[in-house]
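re the bet — no i am not wrong, look at it urself. input seq straight from the record:
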Amino acid sequence: MILVEIVGWGGAVLILAAYVLLTLGRIQAQSVTYQAMNVAGALGFMINGWVNGALPSAALNLIWMGIGVYALWHMRKSG
C-alpha cells in the first residue's frame, strides 16, 4: 500500500511542478515537457484513486491523462 501512496504523491508533485513551471514562464502549455508531466502525474493520481476507491478522482485523472496523451500525439503528428 505504501507504493500506491508514493505513486499518488509523485503524481501530485509532477502536476504541481508542471503548473508552477508554466506559471513562471519556464515551459509552455504546448510543450512536450508540460504535457508529459501532466500525463505522468495524472497516471499516479489515477492509480492512487483507483486503489483507494476514490473513483471520481480516478475518472477525472483518466480524462486528464487522455487530454495530455492527445496533446502529445497531436504535437508529434504536426511537428
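see?? The CA atoms of residues 52 and 61 lie 14 Å apart. told u. also The longest helix spans residues 55-78. so pay up
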